[in-house]
Amino acid sequence: MTGQVREYPNSPRNQKNAEFTHKKALATLSNWGYIRKKFGFSNWLLRQDARRTTQLKEISLLVKMSICKGRQNSIYLGRPAPQKLQRPEPVFKNIVIEALKVQAYLQEVPTRTQIDAGQYFTVTRARISQLTRIVNNLPADFIEKMRECTDQNIIKRFSGKTLLRIAVKNENERRNEIEYLLGSKIY
Fold this sequence. Notes:
mainly alpha; 10 helices
């Protein structure tokens, strides 16, 4: 009984054995044992092709499958999909505390300028000017409340732009805006 034998040209053994040629891959079944012993091929490299039929065959496989949806949909066969990394909750800066640090730095030595403070805190002179405006114009009781505040929602609500926008308004508008953003009276 004779049959064809398939070759796998990209197999590692095929690349190592330069003397293995296409001619030897198309061997008969009678000398297959000789080729296997001589070149050290295992069964997965060359397969017998003598059992081909013209009839259709159905094969059912049961495989564990995981689907990972994201920017690219991925299917993992035989193993679970990797867990998505949870992003840490953002920690917002308390602008009032930064402004109080800048004010304390400037008041330690009266000859210090905003340029010196900008170099010390590694921010621009314009940012130092904004922070001092926030501390000087906002009500003292609000400044004290924000200094002790640890609630991230409130700190997020009173960002640098919001505090600067409030600091530019007159006294009544400032109080109304702060009460509106806090949702309750603080005075």
